Amino acid sequence: MTRLVLLIDPIPEDRAATDAVLSASLTFVAENEPILTAFDAAAARGDGVFETLGANDGRARGIEAHLARLTGSAHKLDLPAPNHDQWRAAIAALLDALPSVGQASIRLTITRGTGQGGPTCWATATPITGDFPERENGVKVVTLSRGYANDVGEASPWLLVGAKTLSYAINMAALREAQRRGADDAVFTSTDGFALEAPTSTLLLRQGNTIVTPVIQHGILAGTTQADLFAHLEGDGFECVYRKVEIAELQRSDALWLVSSVRLAVPVTEVDGTEIPTDRGLTRQLNAALLA
Questions:
Q1: Does the keyword field hold Lyase (predicted)?
Q2: Do 48 and 67 reside in the same domain of the chain?
Q3: Is the model's pTM score more than 0.70?
């Protein structure tokens, strides 16, 4: 499996660039070639932002939504905003270099750099081999407290809970804790009794003909895959709603999913030891729509 690495010499957000300038700003390097110094903020402090896109048969999903979220995260961290034309060109270059058939993940990264100059930027692409059995078999989850109330994003924006930052140590620790408890994944909860999101995915609940996701205004990362699925589901006659979700609603739901750009829609089969109904037909439909 060949992984691709593309260095990006950042162009200011508001600067128009010709195709020649865009091409000159992108450089492929070998996957084992060092691209960071020990003093880069990414290595020293996890100070940066990223996005991960799914791709299938030479086409990346949700490019504009991911670039918008990358820009939002950069603004939250007071980083220079990305030039969307440049990052579109980077994604296109990676897609051109990938096999034309099959799935892949594309990751976009911006760090604060070394403090002597601008940010450090790169993009990678990794072909995905094999299937995702959890799309069919589902996952067991446990609820884990995030340690703060659901409105922390508004009350304490410096906590960056609505930004997709490189500082993923807490997210990975939550997944390890879930595994220690005999589960596959976790759902973060607030101290005032609400379900928030999973460490690497967004939460969807089915209640009859209504599909619910936790409201994003309270420091939850806006879900790009969830937004795509809402558009699909509304076209199929479902009512799609953003609102606060009480923790107890998880175990009462008619179906529950964790959704993300690479794993796509994964059904939840159990929450804190309580079995959850699974809608395998709708799950297959959702994943087929995302891969179409």
A1: yes
A2: yes
A3: yes
